């Protein structure tokens, strides 16, 4: 949750840059950020992918999950999402433009494959988890699994709903060269729609997790809006 919230928050802040300047990422670019800002999406997608693997093993292979899953392993996975994404980006910015364009095209194709994998895994995970959780006796662990599964499913559904128009337009442009083109990122309606994911994801986490909601209220809102002391 923290990894996706950080990447989504940074994506939200990037809107200010895109709105203030005439930004057009690509080859050639115009006032571009060397794909630093768009790469937050890559971190987000990888995190979602590993989160779905996490839920899959937790539901389908609980003994394996409890044996190998630890806090240090999760932290390592989160760090890998950032290191891998920006290592590829660093290489992309160091090679000639022709090679960089090829790497970028490969990255877009990989992103689409990951999104398709996420959709298939979400459907399979939902079916398996629904059947297994229905056979388990009521317990705290069972409720935690249901809560985590519900959050992941809702987050993925909202992610697909907000990013699908942009993905479809990219595919159409790559295959037919007739997709919609925009003057810059600030006027890209599909990109603006996708940026709302930065608000939706944290909101869904807070809504779907009572523990997180209480933690946010206790650590954030009570400090921002402290109660007035009685006179």
UniProtKB/TrEMBL annotation:
GO terms for molecular function: G protein-coupled receptor activity. It is found in: Cell membrane. One of its GO terms (cellular component) is plasma membrane. The chain crosses the membrane at residues 32-51, 72-91, 103-128, 149-172, 192-221. Its main location: membrane. It holds the Pfam family 7tm_1. Keywords: Cell membrane, G-protein coupled receptor, Membrane, Receptor, Transducer, Transmembrane, Transmembrane helix. It is a multi-pass membrane protein. The lineage of its organism: Eukaryota, Metazoa, Chordata, Craniata, Vertebrata. Residues 1-205 form the G-protein coupled receptors family 1 profile domain. SUPFAM superfamilies: Family A G protein-coupled receptor-like. It comes from Oncorhynchus mykiss. CDD domains: 7tm_classA_rhodopsin-like. InterPro entries: GPCR_Rhodpsn, GPCR_Rhodpsn_7TM. This is G-protein coupled receptors family 1 profile domain-containing protein.
